[in-house]
Amino acid sequence: MKLSVKELCTIALTAVLIAVCSWISIPAPVPFTLQTFAVFCALELLGGRRGTIAVLIYLLLGAVGVPVFAGFVGGVGILLGSTGGYLLGFLLTGLVYWLFERLSGRIWVRIAALILGLALCYAFGTLWFVQVYARTNGPISTLAALGWCVFPFLLPDGVKLVLALLLSRRLKPVLSF
Fold first, then answer.
1. pLDDT above 70 (res 29)
2. Whole-angstrom Cα distance, residue 133 to residue 130?
3. CB of 87 within 8 A of CB of 69?
């Protein structure tokens, strides 16, 4: 896989955009951030392959301790913590988008890919949350975990998805590769 200097710079800037959007946060047990918005934008603007690479770089930066996650924190402990599954789920969203994009570049296919990717992110993150939370705080039902970590985010993430699609549509012509 060969990437041009323009592609590498755009991927790096997009990883930074995801970090900046993670810092815009409304405190809650699982913070409300603009990370999902940035992930949606990354995938729509850069495409599945480059967008997924940007998400991976963001996660790797956080894993080595760069404070790119919500609350200006970083480290592998965050990825292994109770909400780490949602962060790793962003990678699933990217991979699903990349796969669907290869099937068809039509807008409805890309939207379906983002929705399915987000659903997988929610599912993976919730299973992760239940396991980690049970080890540290005692058992929790999946329904309770969904109530804390997914249900409050459905509407905001839907709005973020629509806004990302609208913004990406306007910006994409500028980033032609």
1. no
2. 5
3. yes
Per-residue pLDDT at 31 exceeds 80: no
Find, among 150, 160, 161, 155, the residue nearest to 110 by Cα. 161
Residue given tokens 């980033």 in the structure block: 175
Spatial separation of the C-alpha atoms in residues 90 and 96, rounded to whole Å? 10
Structure token pair of residue 140 = 């929790």
Backbone angles phi, psi at 108, to 5 degrees: -65, -30
* DSSP code, position 25: E
Task: State the virtual CA torsion across 111, 116, 120, 122 in degrees, nearest 10.
Answer: 60
pTM strictly above 0.85: yes
What gap in Å lies between CA 164 and CA 159, rounded to an integer? 8
Q: Provide the number of structural domains found in the chain.
A: 1
Q: Report d(CA 34, CA 167) in Å as an integer.
A: 14
96: containing domain: 5-175
Residue 56 has pLDDT above 70, yes or no: yes
Tally of CB atoms within 10 A around 3: 14
Residue-level pLDDT at 48: 96
**What's the CATH number where 53 sits?**
1.10.1760.20
For 163, residues 6+ apart whose C-beta sits below 8 A from its C-beta are: 37
